[in-house]
Write a structure and sequence with these properties.
The structure is a single chain. The protein is an all-alpha fold and 141 residues long. The protein is built from 6 helices and no strands.
Length: 141
């Protein structure tokens, strides 16, 4: 429960600043990862290998997005840290849920705005709120 609260607080901070400024504070997720690591170590449930694997899988994927798909480096740090904190498979669930919610949101915006959207500009929404939703939903599953 403490681990989930730490992650939800980090996601709330990231979501708030991502919506307002279009960026995720670099310190949020590494700090949360250290706290989660400490709590899990204290509880005796820390799995270093799973944390490292989760970090490298998702950091690598999202850094490639940052380099080639005009995503942000903050997203790579956020998702790498999520992989570190909740391991590889649960992070995959979070990504799938967050992407589904993101797609539904984009479709709803396109339908509601219709012809008002400027086709020359790419519709880009802050990603952290969707990861927060994905994490919250995955915790309920």
């Amino acid at each position: 429960m403490i681990v989930q609260i730490i992650i939800l607080i980090a996601l709330a901070i990231a979501s708030f600043t991502d919506i307002r400024k279009g960026e995720i504070p670099v310190w949020v997720f590494p700090s949360a990862a250290i706290l989660v690591c400490t709590v899990r170590f204290w509880e005796g449930s820390f799995d270093l290998m799973s944390s490292i694997i989760g970090f490298f899988i998702y950091f690598t994927i999202y850094i490639l997005f940052a380099l080639f798909a005009k995503s942000g480096g903050g997203d790579a740090i956020m998702m790498g840290s999520m992989g570190f904190m909740i391991y590889a498979y649960p992070t995959l669930k979070v990504i799938i849920i967050s992407l589904l919610v993101y797609i539904v949101t984009v479709i709803a915006i396109v339908i509601s705005k219709g012809a008002e959207l400027d086709r020359s500009k790419r519709l880009q929404l802050p990603y952290a709120p969707f990861v927060g939703i994905g994490y919250a939903v995955s915790c309920m599953m």
